[in-house]
Specification:
Two copies of one chain form a homodimer. The first copy, chain A, is α/β, with parallel strands linked by helices and 333 residues long. Chain A is built from twelve helices and twelve strands. In chain A, the strands form two sheets. Chain A has a six-stranded parallel sheet, sandwiched between helices. In chain A, strands 7-6-8-9-10-12 form a six-stranded mixed sheet, with helices on both faces. The first copy, chain A, binds a DNA duplex (30 and 30 nucleotides) through helix 2 and helix 4.
Chain lengths: 333, 333
DNA sequence: TTCAGCTGTGCAACCGGTTGCAAAGCCTCC
DNA sequence: GGAGGCTTTGCAACCGGTTGCACAGCTGAA
């Protein structure tokens, strides 16, 4: 039903090529012709069909935005920022939900069928094999919130979780905590592993500090709560915990409250991500910031540029974290 | 670079049409031929280009998923459920973020350029004019979480906010609250207006109950908190508040806590939506459920069916709310 | 006046598929 | 052996654009 190139061409009394050229940047069209064409197009409400042109240009301006994280509240802002950053550059996010998906094959197929110009994998829990599978299928890929490695196969943008773990250790040390705990996310997530590594390494510089370790089943409120309840029941608690993430911390916070324990008086807590909720006054969580907006800006910039720039060398782009002081750790001595 | 129809046809020694038929449901291909084609396709890793076929079939299987709500945590599960429901039917969500957008024109253009098969408007705060503009541009549209009206121009799926308001009034009445407050979302959102209407109407059946009204600037934590702080400062508080939504309630909860007021002992609170966070034990909010999964299932079902079924009559589909008893209202007398 | 050098335009082929139509092939039944 | 019916296949046109190439028309220099 909508007007096509042909309709406009007929109405303006020119060839289809002329109309096409009038709508493509930097093509040669006489001013008078362009005007006639624009008038005709206007009258017919003509818009070039992006999909048809993608056939010859090879560009759809669609970007696959794939994630498996639709439960951690921080991802709402992640989607917000991603979609806006993409839209600002005239790119369209084709959203792919990989919850419970273990095999990249289906999504590779689908993304190829829709000829996306590039793929953003936004997840800290999806195995690298997904990003690599998209890459192997020939699409430009960036992995946001992925694991920092020196020579990655695809662009990876995120924080250095090892450094963040170290930072948590230092923060607890400076506040004089001795028996500390690591309450990690799922043990098979690289983010969990790296945060643990850094945390343990940081603590090892302080001979008088001891570490106990446990893992929640997921980066989710209930998981954090359950794990903290288990810890309360099992053995004497540590003096302070570095939780795998804010939502886990909030779960832990709720468990401690139930048990009549005060934070930070009885137990200290430090999270990671600095999601909006951590700043809510009734939560007021001390945490380590994750510079989400910068990560997203960089990710979109990279995916956009690697669309045009073939033979782009993948690299890891790492952003600095900082400690956000709030009310769940006792003050520095 | 990826293999095309022609490549497969040559390798299998058949015409392009034969290959095309082998990949379309219910086309007539001899078993032997089909097998040869499938072998060739397999060898070349061939997948039909969805965009190319959309040119002739007129179907892209892409659905515009448009929203402006990327701050209310409930929308994370909304996106989760929408993407999964769409994927389950082989549909692809093209995500459109309309935050701060006042004019539907741009998005209409964009969605037409990408020939989406249909549009889901998922928002309770976007003016109806958006859904209607998409509809006017000839695309099947459903408006999820939209205003319930008897004869809508497009399918609208959601709750009856007036009934929900009435339900809140009855709930407070049964618990013996007399001076009650309405702490609504943005005054220009239809959801706010309808919840107010129903609430006021419900109260009017109880001669001994009085109502004060105020509005938060947005459906957001800070907005709810700010408004409740203002109420605390301004005048004697009501005995209980019906808040426009859960996230607003949680903001109000935090304000009350700051002021040293106990919930439900000093002030009662009832929210709406029953988002996951409302069930968190450290929040434990009494609220009115919004049957989000059913709404989404129905929305996707409707958009999928109105793609094929032209001259589909739009209607309002309304789901029942129920009160979820938790800890922020005093028990029934 | 002639010719080189531009610019602007149309023709036609192409992108990767689908589909109406007609012809070919096969089988059955008389 | 031939007519009739069904299935299978290829041809060619088409979907809505883009683009290489050739040519027309104009300008300016020799």
């Amino acid at each position: 039903m909508p007007a096509t190139l042909k309709d406009v061409a007929e109405r303006a009394g020119v060839s289809r090529s002329a109309v096409s050229r009038a709508f493509t940047e930097g093509a040669s069209v006489a001013p008078a012709t362009r005007q006639r064409i624009e008038k005709a197009a206007e009258a017919l409400g003509y818009r070039p069909n992006a999909l048809a042109s993608s056939l010859t240009t090879g560009r759809t301006k669609m970007i696959g935005l794939v994630s498996n994280n639709f439960h951690n509240p921080i991802f709402l802002s992640v989607f917000d920022l991603f979609t806006r950053a993409l839209q600002d550059r005239g790119l369209r996010p084709l959203l792919v939900n990989l919850t419970d998906e273990t095999d990249p094959e289906n999504s590779v197929r689908m993304l190829r069928q829709y000829s996306v110009d590039g793929v953003i994998v936004a997840s800290s829990t999806l195995p690298v094999s997904f990003a690599e599978a998209f890459h192997a299928a020939g699409m430009p890929v960036v992995h946001s919130f992925g694991r920092h490695v020196t020579f990655p196969k695809v662009d990876v943008i995120g924080i250095d979780n090892i450094a963040a773990g170290r930072m948590a250790a230092e923060t607890l040390a400076r506040r004089g905590y001795k028996n500390v705990g690591f309450l990690g996310g799922p043990a098979d997530a690289t983010s969990t592993q790296d945060r643990y590594t850094g945390f343990a390494e940081g603590l090892s510089r302080h001979v008088d500090m001891s570490l106990t370790t446990s893992y929640a089943a997921a980066y989710a409120f209930e998981a954090g709560r359950d794990e903290m309840l288990r810890l309360c029941a099992a053995a004497p608690l540590a003096d302070a915990y570095f939780c795998g993430d804010d939502v886990l911390s909030i779960g832990a916070l709720s468990a401690l409250k139930d048990k009549g324990l005060k934070v930070p008086e009885d137990v200290g807590l430090i999270g990671l991500n600095n999601m909006a909720m951590a700043g809510w006054q009734n939560i007021n969580l001390t945490t380590i910031s994750n510079p989400v907006p910068q990560i997203i800006e960089k990710s979109v910039e990279l995916v956009a540029s690697s669309v045009t720039d073939r033979d782009h060398r993948p690299a890891a782009h790492t952003f600095r974290c900082t400690v956000i002081e709030r009310g769940t750790l006792r003050p520095e001595a």
